[in-house]
Amino acid sequence: MEAPLYPDSSPDPSTPRAGQPAFWVGPRHLTGDDGRLYDAVADTLASLGWTSLTIVRGRHEPDEAQEDRQVLRSTVLHISPDTLRWAQWCLADEPFHLGELPIAWQISAREDASSPLADWSAYFTRDVPGEVVADFLLALDAHQQPTASLTGPELVLGAVAGHGWFRDIDQPQVAAMDPTGTSHISLGEVPPLIQDGDPRVLVTEADERGSAGWQAWAEPALGAPCLWTASFAAGVPHDLVAAFAASLSSTAPVLRRLLPEATQDRLLRAPAT
Which of 19, 24, 37, 228 is 20 to 30 Å from the Cα of 128, by its Cα? Predict the structure, then answer.
């Protein structure tokens, strides 16, 4: 069953309460999602004219009251006007995990609307700043060929280096980190289940290296659980990853009411007046 997503309903129960004090906070890559990752991204997609659908799967017996209906799975899907791009809010369904964190948004694109399969997908867990996912989607929406990579990986590393991140000493051509060594971005073998249009990704032998895609994550302390993770299939164009990287490493502060407990002591903040 499909129905329009009601604009005043949010599938994210962690939306912060009104009245909490707001702060301008940085660095952005450690600020979390303010408990508004769904709303921040969905508002951006609505402004771009993407269609929002709630898809519900469940069981409804004859003469059963609506409140007794057993909903087994549900998800929220946003589709671009040309149907070549879509974004799925996975926390409303049954997400798989990335870096031991549940996937919150899965964003996909295809070259041909006649194909039912995505050419690539990108995955973002909760606490990826909503501004960063929104900037990635703005770049995707503006991309005339969402499956064509028009540049090389240097654009991604240049985006973070321009904001003060350091290239990895051992792998300067494929990896970088923020000055505190907390957040990282690197080009390497993608984790299992990351969807890509190349069927070889699914049949890689145990002794073979898989396709290389971009990964990003924040680890507040060595060996501590990640604050957030993001993964891009090998087919994601480098210029789209660069838009993500530039936003992630931006020095511009963001507005927050809820701060991640794991990074509070690393954040600079000023009251928002």
Answer: 19
Sign of the torsion angle spanned by Cα atoms 240, 244, 245, 250? positive
Q: Tokens 């303010």, residue?
A: 34
Query: Could you give the CA distance from residue 27 to residue 254 in angstroms, rounded to a whole number?
Result: 8
- Which of 194, 272, 180 lies closest to 227 in space, CA to CA? 180
Phi/psi of residue 94, nearest 5 degrees: -130, 80
- State which H helix or E strand residue 97 sits in: strand 97-98
Comparing CA positions, the residue from 80, 111, 119, 129 lying closest to residue 230 is 129
With residue 2 as reference, give the H or E element that holds it: strand 2-4
* Tokens found for residue 4: 């329009």
Q: Which residues pair with 70 in a beta bridge?
A: 59
User: What are 197's strand-pairing partners?
Assistant: none
Q: What is the pLDDT of residues 151-165, one digit of tens each?
A: 899 999 999 999 999
pLDDT digits (tens, 9 = 90+) for 193-207: 666 655 444 444 444
pLDDT over 60 (residue 232): yes
